[in-house]
């Protein structure tokens, strides 16, 4: 899982870096965040991770960018006791980072092409920007460590307020926003409360027509799916589908306010306690969507919850052998409280353990 750790490390370096956020760094930040977002969404789908085909390239590119940034900071530290103001990067450093950006952009394009080919072959309604109810139907991910979050947000979803409420879940990539939203979406109490529900993954590179198509197909009251409709036709159809119905819409992985602007006016407020859940990494997006409603900030898992999640991912309901507990705690700690990192790491360790067990049985 070195490529995932490299991405997370690079993202944190970019967010904590003291130098001015030059355009090249902003572009790099967007590409890294988008890759982490794809991994989080793919993990929630329980499908083959197309991003896995590019592990080595992603890892090497992340390390290269990390080396350039670290070298720049070290140089500035040697020149001054403080780099709080920072200095602009050199031309060579910018060129080096631009090379990494171009490589990550190429990887993102290939991943998108792979997804489209696979989804067309399967006949799924997985539009480039995201998916509809099918994404949220996979409810096997246990929200370990999220009990408090679930209870709090259930209260908001089922609260007495009759106004349309926009509930924003904010946190970094891999922290569990999608898992939390999915468990809320699939909760029997929530499912029974709403007349209709829809789920759409927006992502960084979204298409308005595809978002609306997904929402319309999810909320339709007849058996016909919408094909090749204009944006205006889809907007009218969506508003009609939701009008006078208590609805729950999940807009997962929203990156900017424009994505919210293009759909919000088609969500009618009939004072019937309808709700919209919006997951995002950007607090400003959450504030823009609904500045009157409190933002739900996701917290990193505690060391205890991290270990419990790793142990359960590897061993299920069985106990972890005592001899492995110390190293297990260390592995969980190195995942820095990120549920996605723990689940993916645990899955790889579990797979390795099964292979070794199978090999041992064959030799008997």
Classify the fold: give the CATH topology of the largest domain.
Answer: Rossmann fold
Please name the fourth-level CATH homologous superfamily of the largest domain.
Answer: P-loop containing nucleotide triphosphate hydrolases
Number of helices: 15
Structural category: alpha/beta
Distance between the termini: 31 Å
Task: Give the number of domains.
Answer: 3
What portion of residues belong to β-strands?
A: 5-15%
Order of helices and strands: HHHHEEHHEHHEHHEHEHEHHH
CATH class of the largest domain equals Alpha Beta
Count of β-strands: 7
Question: Can you give the mean pLDDT?
Answer: 78
Estimate the global geometry from the Cα principal axes. globular
| Computed CA radius of gyration, to the nearest angstrom | 22 Å
CATH architecture of the largest domain: 3-Layer(aba) Sandwich
Widest sheet: strand ordering: 4-5-6-3-7
GO molecular function: ADP binding; ATP binding
Family: Belongs to the disease resistance NB-LRR family.
Pfam families: NB-ARC
Keywords: ATP-binding, Leucine-rich repeat, Nucleotide-binding, Plant defense
Characterization of this structure:
The strands form 2 sheets. This protein has a 5-stranded parallel β-sheet, with helices on both faces. The protein has a two-stranded antiparallel sheet with strand order 1-2. The chain folds into 3 domains: 2-124, Single alpha-helices involved in coiled-coils or other helix-helix interfaces; 130-297, P-loop containing nucleotide triphosphate hydrolases (Rossmann fold); 303-363, no CATH class. Strand 5, helix 11 (257-264) and strand 6 (275-280) form a beta-alpha-beta unit. It is built from 15 helices and 7 strands. It is α/β, with parallel strands linked by helices. Helix 1 packs parallel to helix 3 (55-79), helix 13 packs across helix 14 and helix 13 runs parallel beside helix 15 (339-363). It is 59% helix and 9% strand. One of its GO terms (biological process) is defense response. Pfam families: NB-ARC. This is Late blight resistance proteinR1A-10.
């Amino acid at each position: 899982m070195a490529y995932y750790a490299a991405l997370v490390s690079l993202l944190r370096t970019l967010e904590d870096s003291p130098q001015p956020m030059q355009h090249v760094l902003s572009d790099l930040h967007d590409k890294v965040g988008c890759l982490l977002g794809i991994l989080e969404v793919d993990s929630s789908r329980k499908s083959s991770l197309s991003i896995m085909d590019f592990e080595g390239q992603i890892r090497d590119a992340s390390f290269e960018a990390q080396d350039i940034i670290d070298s720049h900071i070290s140089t500035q530290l040697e020149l001054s006791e403080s780099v709080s103001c920072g200095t602009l990067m050199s031309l060579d450093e910018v060129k080096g980072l631009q090379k990494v950006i171009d490589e990550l952009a190429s990887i993102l394009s290939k991943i998108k092409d792979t997804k489209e080919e696979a989804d067309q072959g399967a006949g799924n309604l997985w539009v480039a920007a995201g998916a509809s109810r099918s994404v949220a139907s996979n409810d096997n991910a246990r929200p370990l460590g999220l009990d408090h979050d679930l209870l709090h947000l259930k209260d908001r979803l089922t609260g007495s307020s009759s106004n349309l409420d926009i509930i924003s879940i904010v946190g970094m990539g891999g922290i569990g926003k999608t898992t939390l939203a999915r468990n809320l979406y699939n909760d029997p109490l929530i499912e029974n409360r709403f007349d209709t529900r829809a789920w759409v993954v927006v992502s960084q590179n979204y298409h308005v027509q595809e978002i609306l198509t997904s929402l319309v197909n999810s909320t339709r009251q007849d058996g016909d799916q919408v094909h090749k409709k204009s944006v205006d036709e889809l907007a009218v159809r969506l508003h009609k589908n939701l009008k006078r119905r208590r609805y729950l819409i999940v807009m997962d992985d929203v990156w900017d306010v424009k994505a919210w602007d293009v759909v919000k006016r088609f969500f009618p407020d009939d004072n019937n306690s309808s709700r919209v859940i919006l997951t995002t990494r950007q607090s400003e997006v959450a504030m823009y969507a609904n500045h009157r409603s409190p933002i739900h900030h996701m917290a990193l898992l505690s060391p205890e919850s991290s270990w419990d999640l790793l142990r359960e991912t590897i061993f299920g309901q069985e106990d972890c052998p005592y001899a492995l507990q110390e190293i297990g705690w260390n592995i969980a700690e190195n995942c820095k409280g990120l549920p996605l990192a723990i689940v993916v790491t645990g899955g790889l360790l579990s797979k390795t353990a099964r292979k070794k067990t199978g090999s041992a049985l064959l030799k008997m």
